[in-house]
Amino acid sequence: MASPLSSPLLLLLAAIMVHCVVHASSSGTNPTSGFVKVDLTDGNFHVQSPYNVPESQRYRYSNGVRQFWVYDTDKPFNTATHTNPRTEVILQGHDYSSGVWQFQGYGYVPSGTSGVSVMQIHCEEGAEHSTVLMLHVYDGVLRFYSGQAVEGNIYDRWFQLNVVHDVDRSTVAVYVDGQKRFATDVTPSKSYYFKFGVYMQHHDWSSCMESRWTNVTVYTKP
Question: Its domain of life (predicted)?
């Protein structure tokens, strides 16, 4: 079972480790080359978490690290939905419907977490298909939904994740640690937004699911 961090000192050490990862990756491939950073404020990071417990019992933001966890017995994020338990951030205020957009973040998935989405590109509410991309973790492997493997051995290490969505061409590409790992065509929709955290899926889930994120950034092409 995943064990959520309980110590602010551990979160601070995690932030220091991520700084080292960011510095080390700066000498490799840069998927953001040619992109422009989108200004994000705290108000753009909207948390969804189980409605029956305080947000602080499923989400923590300390020393630049956002920590998400959820249990398979948790309720949905509101009483109107029948979806699975989740603790996620919606990057609100930056929905997009054209152009090329990119999510970048530094993620960490502790061993034992399984059967969970840790990042998605969500379509507009009411769309026939809810998402055009979900990155799931099953037994330490990051996958496109529950299918093709994107990155193996994802547990217990910080990794740089870049997801590029070319809306006009209806394609997505996934980079891990600056290396292109996956690309595919996707079904178009009217508009989109990014989400990240933990969202329990429909098979092979663990009783507790956790991910941690820092330095989350959005880019677009001018």
Answer: Eukaryota
Number of Cβ within a 10 Å radius of residue 78: 10
* 175-186 residue pLDDT tens: 999 999 999 999
Closest CA to 142 of 124, 157, 127, 122: 157
Is residue 137 within 8 Å of 154, Cβ to Cβ?
yes
Query: CATH for 8-220?
Result: 2.60.120.200
CA atoms within 13 A on the CB side of 193: 15
Residue 92 Cα distances to 95, 160, 193, 197, 211, angstroms: 7, 22, 7, 14, 20
- In whole angstroms, give the CA distance from residue 116 to residue 209: 7
Query: What is the model's pLDDT at position 126?
Result: 82
SS3 147: coil
pTM listed for this prediction? 0.89
Identity (one letter) of the amino acid at 29?
Answer: T
For 16, the token pair is 């220091």
